[in-house]
């Protein structure tokens, strides 16, 4: 082979290439005649058609076996995660009190987030449930009956409800006393606290920083979350489900310092110290209030 | 012109002094002076300068020239001085490649390059990702490290394997330091041969190796065996006469490395070490380039293919991802990812392991492979140019036929004969056996009584040895018989008489007559006879009986056998009483009017395994060409008896004889066989040679010199054949090197030949080559299976990555998991594929066409299973996600948010929210499921890859069990490492219908291949 290569000149190689692309003698294009190409293409058409059909069929069969209301497994969701609002890049709430453009987007995000929590909306959509116990709504005879959701009134968030006059409402960002909302991820059929009351606690991540962070005010008081918001039945049947939130008001946080804040869900039987999942039953975020 | 002539000439002439029989007759009838001349001619132009004119000089001139004295030799001081000047009398060993270079070669050749590129790319990718602050850049670092480890470990392994066979080689060349008998300071001294210097006077005797190039100044019955130099098998006589202008032709020079067979001689050393003829040839060998092995070419081809596919897919998806508004840096990472994913990580290890396993297996069958890749080369061999002597034949003269009582009897010529089946009742045989026993000077070396007769060592020439062993087999203790019939006189064979004679007493006490026995060239013997023995009776030798003798003689001679005539005479008691003094010089006894008893013919018979091996080659589509220095008639006879020329085919000469027309009128195309004489070859142009190689399927080259072998090899290679060449002599080394695979003889081979060869046959047996061919084909088939198996999976592994880029779904399978498949679960089945037994038709196929039957070709590359395999894995993947809460519709396009660390309330199809870690964990579960799915596909893949043509029902299925076992082990391990939940048991079954589909599809495909072979 090596011998042959040495003997061939560039021109010959080019001629061979041309003959390979289109050989007028045998009427071959890229080494195959028209009918050969036709057959090959037909074969692949049929083959891929068949494969697509097969794929579609198996996927269809698989989807038929999947319950649209409740997932089959929840292996990963034993401990619900927690998140904050406003949620900025990298869980970092940093703004300058004097420059409104640095916090206006937080305000807008909170406004938007709290829209469905308006008392009027809650009153019209949701039921007033008995507080202090799970709001279980078993399917008696009919499977997947629509479930009613319990009211969570925006007004319960106190100063963080953002119910002031629309143009002056800043959720405390304009005054350097920002509100951060903490929410618990929805998990279907999750019963936290083993029938005992649960609440959210927040603190500086390091105890020595607590003084700098100053006192925190939680709304609803104590950061407590009523059991009536559980369980969640999934978005299909639990259409108007309103996720309980806890507002954290940083009343006197030292300015121009980076604060590391951690909020945990305190519920009986719930571990919030998973080494690998930093957001299971807890949430940590940074807060920095800048003043000129 | 002269150089060309050098190569073309050198027609092995077995000089005129063939002892007896048909061959000497041939020479008498065609005394061709050129034959003698050309023996060494090939060497003469390029090499004769070193010999100077020493052969012309008289003894005294020589003494003066070399400052020595024939009686006194050199003085020790002077010798030491010259030794310092010229260096020791040794051949400089071929420059050995430094071990480190050999080692590095293993690291960077072929596949390894591909892997190294993979390593570099992974590390680049790692660097980019690290700089970017991506979340798990270390995957790429590990990938690179693992790849590098694979290359290094495999390199070490391959190096170790080759080093091992090199060591075996080294043990071969270890020889006892040669001694030479030198006259120095007027005394005879035994010196190591490497201490010899120019001008030394040395004495040699039968059995010695000539210690340097020497000019003989005294010789008595000296014969040398030049076979290691010229390939001539006949010993040549040496004297102190200047017989030829050409120093290489003249009788008075003996060459280094040749052997003195008999007689004694004294000579002056004229050249030592590398300046000797053999030294020059050895250095010539290095000028011949080595051909790339077919497997190396295949692997190169494979690397190009993989690189081509990798780069084109990579670039395509680079463009796609850029146009999909991915960041350029991300796109580059995708590009690199795709290229790395295309690298078949496990393949290098698999190929190396397979080759060395086969090499090991071949070593057991007496093929020692020096270069691992040669294993496969042997399998693609389409022409074998084989030596005759020793390779096809047993390399020992054996009595093949007898003629007495007007009848030809056949003798057993097999390797381990213990009796002879022919009719021994005739009194003529008794008489003949007496002559055979008595008129023979050969003797067994003492102390071999326990060895089989055929294996005993004999002192004496080839014919006499044959006769001695023949007699020993039939009559038993020949030495004892001789002792009882005391020898009273003897005339040894000489080339003028062309007979040998001895006179014995009889062992019968009542019979006081002497018995005169004689053997020699049949026609010479017949001349001396007046009667002939028929059934024990002496009858007058009339013309009718002489005619019968002629017919028998012609017939035996025509079979290429060396024929000897035997006659005897009981000397009348009255004329020759027991006190009579015989004088061999005056010949005071009758040497005519004897009684002719019979003929015996001898041949170097083919090894018993060879005909079978040749027919195997034939059915395997391999052309066997015999290249020998022997006489055409002998060559043809052996070729016929081993099947190189089949019983029905004819040469041009045969046809001419049959049709009774001149040779020129025969249509050359009708003749399937050809016997080409080296003399003819000399005058041929390469076109003519090509024509012969093309038109005749059965070719014998006779009387060729080792140099002509090179021309024949090149001719064969011009036909596009993969050529295997056997050889043993130093002069064979260029051809061995030129050939695609050079096969040296382990026993008879010279070190130079072994060095140049790729393989060494430890038993010198042609049949071993055929076993080697079978192994070589098997390895090619199996490698093809392995590669198909690996590639199928490789593309299936690439698929998820591509889909990931295009549809932005969560990554279905991670790099490390893929590594687990490639280097974990798949290594064993890949190696197991290399252990697969041969398919039933392996030796009935034509050798692969090296231009068309590639290790990897388009058909293989577009095998459709991979799509099926990928489909199955995706179904499993989607199943896992759906059952955990992400329906396929939700998954599309989620990549960016899915991989965002800050998003910890990612909503699934059911309204649930997931943290990043929970998603990642799910992703790992997906990996596991995908992995399981691929391995299930691989079972089907393994099943179908086990055979290329045969249905799985025609082959066994052991490996599959092992595969399952291993698979589950690895599965556990991968879970442990990812600490992911085990893939739920049902996920194992999602892929099963697909696996069955693959298998059914393939069985149908194979059915079509078997039904309609040859179609695309």
TrEMBL record, chain A:
One of its GO terms (biological process) is membrane repolarization. GO terms for molecular function: ATPase activator activity; ATPase binding; protein-macromolecule adaptor activity; transporter activator activity. Keywords: Cell membrane, Disulfide bond, Glycoprotein, Ion transport, Membrane, Potassium, Potassium transport, Signal-anchor, Sodium, Sodium transport, Sodium/potassium transport, Transmembrane, Transmembrane helix, Transport. Its main location: membrane. InterPro entries: Na/K_ATPase_sub_beta, Na/K_ATPase_sub_beta_sf. The chain crosses the membrane at residues 37-63. It is found in: Cell membrane; Membrane. It is a single-pass type II membrane protein. Pfam families: Na_K-ATPase. PANTHER family: SODIUM/POTASSIUM-DEPENDENT ATPASE BETA SUBUNIT (PTHR11523), SODIUM_POTASSIUM-TRANSPORTING ATPASE SUBUNIT BETA-2 (PTHR11523:SF26). NCBIfam families: Na_K_ATPase_bet. This is the non-catalytic component of the active enzyme, which catalyzes the hydrolysis of ATP coupled with the exchange of Na(+) and K(+) ions across the plasma membrane. Belongs to the X(+)/potassium ATPases subunit beta family. This is Sodium/potassium-transporting ATPase subunit beta. The lineage of its organism: Eukaryota, Metazoa, Chordata, Craniata, Vertebrata.
Automatic annotation (TrEMBL), chain B:
It comes from the Eukaryota. Residues 53-127 form the Cation-transporting P-type ATPase N-terminal domain. Its main location: membrane. It is a multi-pass membrane protein. SUPFAM superfamilies: Calcium ATPase, transduction domain A (SSF81653), Calcium ATPase, transmembrane domain M (SSF81665), HAD-like (SSF56784), Metal cation-transporting ATPase, ATP-binding domain N (SSF81660). Pfam families: Cation_ATPase, Cation_ATPase_C, Cation_ATPase_N, E1-E2_ATPase, Hydrolase_3. Keywords: ATP-binding, Hydrogen ion transport, Ion transport, Magnesium, Membrane, Metal-binding, Nucleotide-binding, Phosphoprotein, Potassium, Potassium transport, Translocase, Transmembrane, Transmembrane helix, Transport. One of its GO terms (biological process) is intracellular potassium ion homeostasis. This is Sodium/potassium-transporting ATPase subunit alpha. It comes from Strigops habroptila. The lineage of its organism: Eukaryota, Metazoa, Chordata, Craniata, Vertebrata. The gene is ATP12A.
């Amino acid at each position: 082979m090596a011998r042959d290569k040495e003997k061939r000149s560039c021109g010959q190689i080019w001629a061979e290439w041309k003959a390979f692309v289109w050989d007028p003698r045998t009427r071959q294009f890229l080494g195959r005649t028209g009918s050969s190409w036709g057959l090959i293409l037909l074969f692949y058409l049929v083959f891929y058609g068949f494969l697509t059909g097969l794929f579609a069929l198996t996927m269809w069969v698989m989807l038929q076996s999947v319950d649209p209301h409740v997932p089959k497994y929840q292996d990963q969701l034993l401990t619900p995660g927690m998140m904050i609002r406003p949620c900025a890049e990298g869980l970092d709430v940093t703004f300058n009190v004097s420059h409104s453009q640095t916090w206006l987007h937080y305000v807008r995000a909170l406004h938007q987030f709290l829209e469905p929590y308006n008392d009027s909306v809650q009153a019209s959509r949701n039921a007033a449930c008995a507080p202090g116990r799970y709001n279980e709504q078993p399917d008696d005879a009919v499977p997947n009956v629509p479930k009613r959701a319990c009211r969570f009134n925006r007004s319960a968030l106190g100063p963080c409800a953002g119910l002031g006059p629309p143009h002056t409402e800043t959720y405390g960002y304009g005054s350097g006393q920002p509100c951060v909302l903490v929410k618990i991820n929805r998990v279907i059929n999750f019963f936290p606290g083993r029938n005992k009351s649960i609440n959210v606690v927040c603190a500086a991540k390091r105890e020595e920083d607590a003084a700098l962070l100053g006192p925190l005010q939680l709304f609803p008081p104590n950061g407590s979350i009523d059991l009536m918001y559980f369980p969640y039945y999934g978005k299909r049947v639990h259409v108007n489900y309103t996720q309980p939130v806890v507002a954290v008001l940083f009343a006197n946080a030292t300015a121009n310092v980076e604060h590391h804040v951690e909020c945990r869900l305190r519920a009986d039987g719930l571990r919030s110290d998973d080494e690998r999942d930093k957001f299971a039953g807890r949430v940590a975020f940074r807060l920095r209030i800048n003043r000129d | 012109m002269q150089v060309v002539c050098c190569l073309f000439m050198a027609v092995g002439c077995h000089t005129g002094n063939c002892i007896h029989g048909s061959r000497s007759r041939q020479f008498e009838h065609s005394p061709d002076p050129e034959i003698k001349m050309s023996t060494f001619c090939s060497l003469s132009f390029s090499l004769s300068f070193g010999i100077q004119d020493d052969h012309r000089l008289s003894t005294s001139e020589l003494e003066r020239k070399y400052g020595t004295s024939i009686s006194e030799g050199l003085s020790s001081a002077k010798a030491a001085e010259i030794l310092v000047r010229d260096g020791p009398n040794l051949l400089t060993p071929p420059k050995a490649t430094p071990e480190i270079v050999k080692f590095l070669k293993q690291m960077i050749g072929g596949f390894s390059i591909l892997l190294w590129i993979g390593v570099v790319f992974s590390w680049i990718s790692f660097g980019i990702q690290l700089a970017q602050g991506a979340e798990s850049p270390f995957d790429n670092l590990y990938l690179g490290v693992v790849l590098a480890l694979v290359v290094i470990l495999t390199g070490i392994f391959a190096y170790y394997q080759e080093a091992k066979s090199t060591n075996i080689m080294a043990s071969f060349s270890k020889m006892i330091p040669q001694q030479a008998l030198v006259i120095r300071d007027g005394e005879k001294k035994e010196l190591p041969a490497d201490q010899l210097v120019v001008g030394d006077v040395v004495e040699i005797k039968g059995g010695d190796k000539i210690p340097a190039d020497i000019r003989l100044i005294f010789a008595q019955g000296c014969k040398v065996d030049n076979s290691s130099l010229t390939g001539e098998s006949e010993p040549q006589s040496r004297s102190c006469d200047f017989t030829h202008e050409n120093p290489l032709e003249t009788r008075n020079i003996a060459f280094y490395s040749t052997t003195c067979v008999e007689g004694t001689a004294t000579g002056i050393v004229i050249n030592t070490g590398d300046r000797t003829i053999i030294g020059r040839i050895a250095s010539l060998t290095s000028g011949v380039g080595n051909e790339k092995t077919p497997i190396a070419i295949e692997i190169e081809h494979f690397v190009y293919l993989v690189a081509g596919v990798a780069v084109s897919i990579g670039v395509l998806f680079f463009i796609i991802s850029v146009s999909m508004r991915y960041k350029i840096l991300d796109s580059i990472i995708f590009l690199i990812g795709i290229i790395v994913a295309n690298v078949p990580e496990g393949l290098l290890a698999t190929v190396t392991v397979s080759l060395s396993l086969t090499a090991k297996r071949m070593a057991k069958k007496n093929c020692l492979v020096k270069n691992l890749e040669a294993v496969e080369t042997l399998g693609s061999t389409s022409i074998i140019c084989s030596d005759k002597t020793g390779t096809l034949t047993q390399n020992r003269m054996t009595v093949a036929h007898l003629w007495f009582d007007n009848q030809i009897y056949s003798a057993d010529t097999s390797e381990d004969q213990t009796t002879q089946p022919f009719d021994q009742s005739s009194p003529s045989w008794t008489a003949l056996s007496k002559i055979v026993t008595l008129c023979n000077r050969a003797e067994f070396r003492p102390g071999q009584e326990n060895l089989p007769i055929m294996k005993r060592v004999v002192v004496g020439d080839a014919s006499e040895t044959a006769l001695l062993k023949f007699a020993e087999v039939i009559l038993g203790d020949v030495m004892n018989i001789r002792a009882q019939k005391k020898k009273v006189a003897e005339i040894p064979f000489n080339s003028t008489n062309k007979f040998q004679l001895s006179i014995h007493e009889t062992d019968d006490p009542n019979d006081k007559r002497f018995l005169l026995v004689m053997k020699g060239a049949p026609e010479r013997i017949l001349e001396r006879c007046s009667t002939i023995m028929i059934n024990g009776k002496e009858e007058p030798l009339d013309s009718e009986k002489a005619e019968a003798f002629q017919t028998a003689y012609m017939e035996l001679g025509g079979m290429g056998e060396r024929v000897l005539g035997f006659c005897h005479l009981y000397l009348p008691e009255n004329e020759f009483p027991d006190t009579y003094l015989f004088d061999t010089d005056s010949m005071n006894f009758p040497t005519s009017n004897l009684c002719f008893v019979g003929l015996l013919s001898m041949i170097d018979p083919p090894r018993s395994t060879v005909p079978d091996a040749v027919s195997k080659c034939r059915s395997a589509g391999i052309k066997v060409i015999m290249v020998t220095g022997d006489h055409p008639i002998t060559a043809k006879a052996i070729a016929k008896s081993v099947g190189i020329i089949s019983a029905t085919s004819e040469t041009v000469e045969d046809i001419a004889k049959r049709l009774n027309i001149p040779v020129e009128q025969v249509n050359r195309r009708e003749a399937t066989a050809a016997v080409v004489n080296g003399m003819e070859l000399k005058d041929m142009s390469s076109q003519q040679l090509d024509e012969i190689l093309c038109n005749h399927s059965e070719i014998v080259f006779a009387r060729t010199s080792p140099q002509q072998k090179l021309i024949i090899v090149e001719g064969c290679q011009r036909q596009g054949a993969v050529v295997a060449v056997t050889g043993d002599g130093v002069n064979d080394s260029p051809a061995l090197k030129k050939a695609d695979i050079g096969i040296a003889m382990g026993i008879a081979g010279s070190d130079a030949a072994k060095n140049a060869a790729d393989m060494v046959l430890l038993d010198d047996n042609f049949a071993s080559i055929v076993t080697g061919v079978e192994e070589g084909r098997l390895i090619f088939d199996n490698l093809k299976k392995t590669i198909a198996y690996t590639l199928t999976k490789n593309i299936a592994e690439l698929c998820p990555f591509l889909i990931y880029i295009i549809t932005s779904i969560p990554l279905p399978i991670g790099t490390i998991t893929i590594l687990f498949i490639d280097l974990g679960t798949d290594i064993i089945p890949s190696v197991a594929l290399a252990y697969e037994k041969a398919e039933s038709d392996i030796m009935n196929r034509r050798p692969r066409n090296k231009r068309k039957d590639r290790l990897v070709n388009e058909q293989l590359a577009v095998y459709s299973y991979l799509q099926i395999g990928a489909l199955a894995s995706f179904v499993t993947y989607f199943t896992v996600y759906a059952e955990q809460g992400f329906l396929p519709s939700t998954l599309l396009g989620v990549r960016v948010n899915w991989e965002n660390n800050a998003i910890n309330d990612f909503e699934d199809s059911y309204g649930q929210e997931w943290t990043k870690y929970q998603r990642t964990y799910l992703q790992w579960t997906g990996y596991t499921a995908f992995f399981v799915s691929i391995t299930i596909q691989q079972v089907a893949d393994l099943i179908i890859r086990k055979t290329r043509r045969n249905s799985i029902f025609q082959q066994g299925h052991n490996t599959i069990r092992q595969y399952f076992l291993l698979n589950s082990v690895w599965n556990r391990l991968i879970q442990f490492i990812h600490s992911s939940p085990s893939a739920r048991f049902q996920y194992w079954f999602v892929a099963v219908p697909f696996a069955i589909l693959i298998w059914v599809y393939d069985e149908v495909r194979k059915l079509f291949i078997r039904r309609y072979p040859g179609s695309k």
